[in-house]
Specification:
The structure holds two protein chains of two kinds. Chain A has helices spanning 3-21, 36-62, 68-85, 88-106. Chain A starts with a helix and ends with a helix. In chain A, α3 runs antiparallel to α4. Chain A is mainly α. By secondary structure, chain B is mainly alpha-helical. The chains are: A mainly alpha, B mainly alpha. At the A-B interface, α1, α2, α3 and α4 of A face α2, α3, α4, α5 and α6 of B.
């Protein structure tokens, strides 16, 4: 195996582990439910997931109109099935099936 | 029993299913891209095994094969994943009194974006936190990521070439998962956070790069959460 590649992987891997593990050692008991720390942590989930959702669909949006129909069908499929079932897994599968089906129908 | 003792390992396995299905095509693609760029199958698989962070692995291949210096490449990859520092505390804060970290040195390794989102979504829907649940959620996702990378590196990209609709559906798995997770945890109070995060992601991506867009989205979203007072 290429030694340079191994060094890069180890540096990045150790940093990833540190980023993911070391913050779990923080004392989270300080402050009330509306403290600055609580607000940071409460906002982290919605901010991160929204950011990743936008980042994941943005390339397809920028390639409009080629994938617009399939993307739109997928997004609608997720929203409709989640509204009905409140199931994350079900909505995810429905969205993927709707996207693939629309791609097939439109191509 | 779940409410009293926290979610089980099996609950974690069930929660991992959409994450695993989302990882398979992406990790497979990474294996294909890495070997096509000149890495061996062992090197491609090792990157998934050691780094375990999708976007930065693709960047690693691009930088390494372009001849970028080792330290520049390593620090670029590290900078891309700084956002992960808030994931563990956010989950533990949501877990409340049930939060335990005895084995966090092991399960925290699996706190990727998708695993974090699924864990937070499960907690928001009433699952009680347990380290068993975190292992059940994280292990299949990690195995799927590494295994699919190895398959992609070994067999190349021809397997699904004849089925573009299937490729399109699989490629939409992760966006679909993120949207479903967002819907599951969204509250009226967090709407400004989501709106600002989305706008910052678009602006950062279009103005500079996807990595900057992700960091800008998370930073601005969290900053909005800090500034927003309770009503």
């Amino acid at each position: 195996m290429n030694v340079d590649l191994l060094i890069i992987a180890l540096l990045a891997g150790v940093a990833n582990w540190a980023f993911r593990f070391l913050p779990t050692r923080f004392d989270l008991s300080a402050g009330g439910p509306d403290s600055r720390l609580s607000r940071v942590l409460a906002a982290t989930g919605p901010a991160a997931i929204c950011t990743l959702f936008v980042a994941s669909v943005l390339p397809a949006v920028l390639h409009l109109p080629k994938d617009a129909g399939a993307l739109g069908a997928g997004l609608i499929g997720v929203c409709v099935v989640f509204a009905i079932s409140r199931s994350v897994a079900g909505a995810t599968f429905a969205g993927a099936i709707a996207c693939g089906g629309a791609f097939w129908a439109l191509s | 029993m779940t409410l009293e003792n926290g979610a089980t390992f099996r609950d974690g396995l069930v929660a991992a299913v959409p994450v695993v299905l989302g990882y398979l095509p992406i990790a497979f693609s990474f294996g294909v891209v890495a070997t096509q760029a000149g890495l061996t199958a062992v090197e491609a698989t090792a990157l998934s095994l050691i780094i375990y962070a999708g976007a930065s692995q693709f960047v690693a291949v691009a930088l390494v094969t372009s001849g970028a210096p080792i330290l520049v490449t390593a620090f670029t990859l590290i900078a891309m994943n700084v956002r992960h520092v808030l994931y563990g505390p956010a989950i533990l804060k949501r877990a409340g009194d049930r939060a335990t970290t005895q084995h966090a040195w092991a399960w925290a390794w699996g706190l990727t974006d998708e695993v974090f989102g699924q864990a937070l979504g499960s907690l928001s829907r009433g699952a009680g936190f347990s380290e068993r649940f975190m292992f059940g959620l994280g292990l299949p996702a990690y195995a799927a990521w590494v295994g699919a990378t190895a398959l992609g590196a070994a067999f190349g990209g021809g397997a699904l070439a004849g089925y573009p609709a299937v490729q399109a559906g699989l490629a939409f798995m992760l966006p679909a998962l993120f949207l479903a997770l967002l819907l599951s945890i969204l509250s009226r109070r967090q709407v400004p956070v989501v709106v600002v995060a989305a706008a910052a992601t678009v602006i950062g991506t279009l103005a500079l790069s996807p990595t900057v867009g992700i960091l800008a989205g998370m930073f601005c979203g969290v900053a909005t959460g800090i500034l927003r007072r309770s009503t």
